[in-house]
Structure of Histidinol-phosphate aminotransferase:
Amino acid sequence: MSTTGFIDGMRAEVRNLPAYNAGLSSDLVRARYGVTHVAKLGSNENPRGASAAVLAHLARWTTAASLSLYPDPSCSVLRTMIAEKLNVAPEQLLFGNGSEDLLAIAAHTFLGAGDEVVTVVPSFGLHIIYPQSAGAKVITVPMRADLEFDVDALIAAISPQTRMVIISNPSNPVGCAMNANEMRRLLSAVSPNTLVLWDEAYFEYAAGEHGYPDSLAILRESGLPWLLLRTFSKAYGLAGLRVGYGVASAPELAGLMDRVRTPFNINQIAQEAAAVAFADQAHVAASVEDTRAGRTQMHAALEALGISPARSLANFLFFDCGEDAAALAARMLADGVIVKPWREAGYETCMRVSIGSAADNALFIESFKRRRASF
Ligand SMILES: *Cc1c(COP(=O)(O)O)cnc(C)c1O
């Protein structure tokens, strides 16, 4: 029996999809390299973990509730909390099994064969993979040489044929962010036939930084169709539970996405944990504070080694290490250090390192020094 004929008959856009590069697990690195401690700095996770209030809630959970019931398909508790905090209509909100789920839902709701999407490179892989899986053609605009958004080049790439513009602000993997003027300038070049997908996975880290835009206000004033994405995976420390949310410019857009998503895409434990986490903003603030201090230290330590990381408003640094980043990252695994080497064409000498605990950050610097090709 062979599946070749069957696979040959499939949609080419799926057959040709690149695989998402999800990074290595700590267990795998421990087992393969015999190290006891792993500094997991490849996935932008929160070293502080989840809030103590979430852990306390989960410890009580199994006795208080039943696993046999379906979860609330509309995430009502979380929906009410977030709608109030953001001052948006509850019907504008949409929830996903992580915001990556919402990226997939948006691609499959709003894009079809031949539709044009504009995004940046280096990019968050799923900003390209999901549109491609829906048959769209993705145009990537490189960041400037100084690793800032090239707003002029983005404007030049956008046309009335563009169906969707996808930007993460702060950028993953670079860390830089557009300011309010740049964001307004970009949006003024977008036609009303285009959906602006504004991914703020690192919003909480950037919100207090100088020049970071009030994107919700700017998207609203644009009059365009838009979808703003945020997540509980990063500053809230809940990556393992998978909860992301989106705000759509109009309830109609959220309603369309609602038909495409799976009805029970957020499990009950995750819904409850996210609601408890959302109420504990002190935990978020402390995580952001840790990150800012760690980022300043790591930036200085890298500069002392002759490396110039990009400006970052997020919980990671991106830099050119001057050599094959994948090979260097592979050598660093022997020290129990996981980082993310970049693989997109033109960025193969770049790596992204998450800001972890002070000890893990120090381990990273030590390993980077030891393992890099001396020059
Ligand atoms: C981490 C990340 C996401 C996905 O986060 P989820 O865990 O799926 O909520 C989405 N966009 C960007 C840019 C990210 O870095």
User: Anything to note?
Assistant: The CA atoms of residues 180 and 213 lie 5 Å apart.
